[in-house]
Amino acid sequence: MRKTVAIVGYGRFGRVLERLLKDDFSLIIVTRENPKEIQKAEVVFYAVPISSFEKVLKSHQKYFKDNHLLIDVLSVKVYPKKVFEKILKGKKTQAMLTHPMFGPDSSKNGFLGLPIVLNQFKASSKNYQFWKDFFQKKGLRVVELKAEEHDKMAAYSQGVTHFIGRLLQKFNFKKTPIDTLGARKLQEVMEQTCNDTWQLFFDLQTFNPYTKTMRLKLSKAYDFLFNKLLPKRVHKKYLIFGIQGGRGSFNEEALLTYVKEKNIKNYKIRYLYTTKNVFKALYKGEIDYGVFAIVNSKGGIVDESIEAMVNYKFRVVDKVTIFIRHFLMKKKEISFSQISQIMAHPQVFAQCQNNLRKKYPHLKLISGKNEMIDTAKAAKALSQGKIEKTTAILGPKILSEIYDFEIVDFDLQDDKENKTTFLIVQRR
């Protein structure tokens, strides 16, 4: 008499299971609408998403019988093992762990030679041997592993493959007329893994306790190779410093202070205006060192820098702290009564907020967008007529000398001992 087998989950792999089992068993397809049908089966295969497994199993536990054998086909094994142990505690219901190491694409031409991982777990020796024999008769290559062994191997096999496949998809890896065999193989990896759902990808990466370590190692390997291809020095004769500000900025003053202290003679400056641009240039190997403001004694943490830092890996080489004085300046041909707004970096306003509120409450305080957030960049734009001529600039005194501005007020910083610390960083 043929065994009755239920399949829970009739997605892409549920249909693969149907192909594998239909010639040898009476099948029942269990859906949300007919969960009681599992009572008619002797064996229940669970082919549901990993993230849904516990919820589905809980909803079925009232239908489990002592002679039931539950078999999961999840791509992770430690997780279903724990779920089975929790839900079947105190019950005689049996459970067996499996992972068919194939999918709809790799099994479309049959099952001969394809691997399947088995673990007896809570199944009787008789039931375990029955299914082991069945899978072997179908041509599958049985690999017996503990749940922990499986997940360790799968993280560095299936986990890597799916990660690389999705990476290639995000990279928009395309076929070309000159593709080598290796390139075609990569296309196959991308196509096969991306045929699976995003849910499977996320579940593979998050429910296997070893995939996080795998991804970190993969990231380190990528960083090593990427940095290996970049020059140790951008220029043989000069050190190239990329700074957060423009010409005349406090960033430039900080760098000039630093190179003097360290007796660095041969160097050049790239004015990059934002911390984000500094990190981009550092990452691309366009500069040797980056310089940006990190904290001020009055204004606190420089938000722009913190936001940029989280997206890059880098090493802090040194730091330099300078005194900061803020001067209010305007174009000489504009009378101060015509001034309608003051433009500067948000951190400048944080350092001068009390004095500005007392002395210039009628003036609008604005910061530019993108590179125009830099006070030195804004000063240059004002001199070139690119922003309203009724704008005053609040920043370093040297800007008035560079752009022939008239200073109308000085020392507007709230803290007389106003200091800013700048970091000197390089690629890690």
In short, what is this structure?
39% of the residues lie in helices and 22% in strands. The chain is α/β, with parallel strands linked by helices and 428 residues long. The chain has four domains: 4-146, Rossmann fold (3-Layer(aba) Sandwich); 156-228, no CATH class; 239-317 and 422-427, D-Maltodextrin-Binding Protein, domain 2; 327-421, D-Maltodextrin-Binding Protein, domain 2, CATH 3.40.190.10.
Please give a handful of descriptors for the protein shown.
D-Maltodextrin-Binding Protein, domain 2, Rossmann fold, 4 domains, seven-stranded mixed sheet, 428 residues, alpha/beta, single chain, six-stranded mixed sheet, elongated
Explained architecture:
This protein has 428 residues and is of the alpha/beta class. It has 4 domains: 143 residues, 3-Layer(aba) Sandwich (Rossmann fold), CATH 3.40.50.720; 73 residues, no CATH class; 85 residues, D-Maltodextrin-Binding Protein, domain 2; 95 residues, Periplasmic binding protein-like II (D-Maltodextrin-Binding Protein, domain 2, 3-Layer(aba) Sandwich). It has 15 helices and 18 strands. Strands 2-1-3-4-5-6-7 form a 7-stranded mixed sheet, sandwiched between helices. Strands 8, 9, 10, 11, 12 and 18 form a 6-stranded mixed sheet that branches. Strand 8, helix 10 and strand 9 form a beta-alpha-beta unit. Helix 2 runs parallel beside helix 3 and helix 6 crosses helix 7. The N and C termini lie far apart (67 Å). The mean pLDDT is 96.
